[in-house]
Amino acid sequence: MTNKITAKTITDSEFFYGHKACAGCGGSLAVRIALKVLGERAISVLPAGCMSAVGFNYPHLCFSNNSIISTFAGTASMLTGVEAGARAVGIKNFKAVGLAGDGGTADIGIQALSGAIDRNDDILYICYDNEAYMNTGIQKSGLTPFGAKTTTTPSGENIHGNLRPKKNLFEIVAAHNISYAATASIGNLPDFINKIEKASKIKGTTYIHVVAPCPIGWGIPVNETIEIARKMIDCGLWYLAEYENGQFTLNKNPRDFSSIKDYLLSQGRFKHLDDADIEILAVQRDAKWAAIQKNWNTTKEEL
Amino acid sequence: MTKAFLSGNDAFAEGVRLARPQVISIYPITPQTTVVERISEMVEDSSLKSELIHVESEHSALSCAIGASAMGARTFTATSSQGLLYMAECLHYASGGRFPIVMMNANRSTALPWNIYGDQRDSLSQLDCGWIQVYVEDAQESLDMALQSYHIAENPLVSTPVMVNLDGFVLTHTYETVEIPSQTDADRFLPPFQTENKMSLDNPKNLAFSVGPDNNMEFKYLQHKAILGSKRIIEETDAKFAEIFGRSYGGLTQGYRLDDADYILITLGSITGLCREVVDELRERGEKVGLLKLRFLRPFPSDDLVAALGSAKAVGVLEKDISFGYEGTVYTNVNSVIAKNGLRLETYNFIAGLGGRDISRENITAIFRHLQTGGQHVNFIGLGMTIDD
């Protein structure tokens, strides 16, 4: 396709600008890029969370497109209302987009998200996943990975951080037989941009799960957000994939994984992990990839 | 205008149809369910052209209505009891955002213990959530207030959601003859919804934002002022309604045989009809008794109360509610008006009908007896004992 949005052709206009997000914030980059792709006819719904906390402080309002904060649990249900309301008052050619964090999506908001997908409402839901409740100061969410230290899963002699694996939200969403779902990462912006553009043109509910590291919560320097997101893909703890027409497709099929230990130990939240802990994560990773190679369409070229 | 034999819920659904809401979010709960069933049938047979959304919870029902209202659409939803409590967060959200949603609430007891029958603890426990609260008495008033509520809520000076309360089963499931206005008259009464408080592509807005300590009180003050100011709009709406439909409800309250009344019973909702009959019986015997129906609990009809109670010797508040550890919430509100205005009369509270317990003619006669003879201030009716026992 010739008219695809790329790094070269993406608009200079900013729709999320002048906000108070921390230096190196991955979530704000995901929101900024998403709105640049969707443009001025996007109507965004953001729940209580980091992005609404840094962007909606009256009279300092940072979205130049129509935007509204929803209740924490109500991103998807408010999106449904916004989409139906816009149609009801005769607005055409718009996109209702939800921009919610991992806790707002996988925990408190999952019921509303499931309802919206079930109705196949014409909305795009983007979950920016920084793997914990960062706005309240780094507490465990359903998307916090095994081993991660948070303020509610401290690491000590007996317990080495979070005991449970990351909830597989991409496949939970796909199990609704959704029109389109994808995983993405701010470590691969061209892929993220493509997927937003693709989702925005599909009628019905679409979902993008984008990993967006939080330097404060992950314990990394603020200039390494993109690098750590890339490492997460390279070591196999994240994957870029799509679900469409009942099929899963892997977009990037790495020949070898980079060191999982290097990925983990370069972050403060995993510093306490011993070799046995790392082995647990490696085994989980390998089992997941074995299932992916067996069941998913993996013929796509490497990105 | 046509006549039909309708339940309270059916009548309310007819009022909703005439109001032409553009987005309706529905979720079932007893005894509200038949409202959303009727509305679904109306959408199916095209007598109501509306986006009908099958949400997966009451929280989502109101969250969805807020989203649609934020786009400038007229919205409707309905709930009851546990559902109202489940959407409590969104109640405050809708009123703080000044979204003029209209919602019907079928008054029902709250768990625990579980109970599906009517009392008013659900809505009265949410009295402080910033909504205008109406309590209706019969099926006709249900239909009429569905229409009136949009007229009140959407007035730009008010811009506040309205909750219309129907007593569970006693009103929601009881059939009466109801006059259904013509769509032409309904449209004459209720113009299409217009608001500046919305997102639009021509004039993008950020809504439902944060406001820190430096400006927060100003927002709350303006919200309070708007609801106080709605008293005038409620009366104007009732007058306009009377002009077009020939029915009037008196605004915030409706008095009955109050002239020279020494003993006045305050009621809300469907029990009022039976109380009126008891007033008639006692009047025939020469007893100076009267009745004041509170139609609106927010805004609270302070001025009406002062005018009605000014020369009475005693007033009783009959309510299907108790604020545990104190007294009935309506009673507390009434006493506050009496104290602030220096009225000198005895006040009594009659807690009745909890969990749907029947309130009999004999109960009401005994309540008037209590007003005349005096006694304990807070009384449980139909319990066979007092709280001192």
Please explain how this structure is put together.
The complex is a heterodimer of chains A (303) and B (389). Chain A is α/β, with parallel strands linked by helices and 303 residues long. Chain A has a single domain (26-295), classed as 3-Layer(aba) Sandwich (Rossmann fold). In chain A, 36% of the residues lie in helices and 16% in strands. In chain A, helix 1 (26-38) crosses helix 7 (189-200). The longest helix of chain A is centred in the last third of the chain and has 21 residues, at 275-295. Chain A starts with 25 loop residues before the first helix and ends in an 8-residue tail after the last helix. In chain A, 54% of the residues are buried. Chain B is of the alpha/beta class and 389 residues long. In chain B, helix 1 (8-19) runs parallel beside helix 7 (139-153) and helix 3 packs parallel to helix 5. Chain B is globular. The mean pLDDT of chain B is 97. Chain A binds chain B through residues 40-41, 43, 45, 52-53, 56-59, 61-71, 73-74, 76-89, 91, 94, 111-112, 114-115, 118-119, and chain B through 22-23, 25, 50-51, 53-57, 59-61, 63-73, 75, 89-90, 93, 199-201, 204-212, 215.
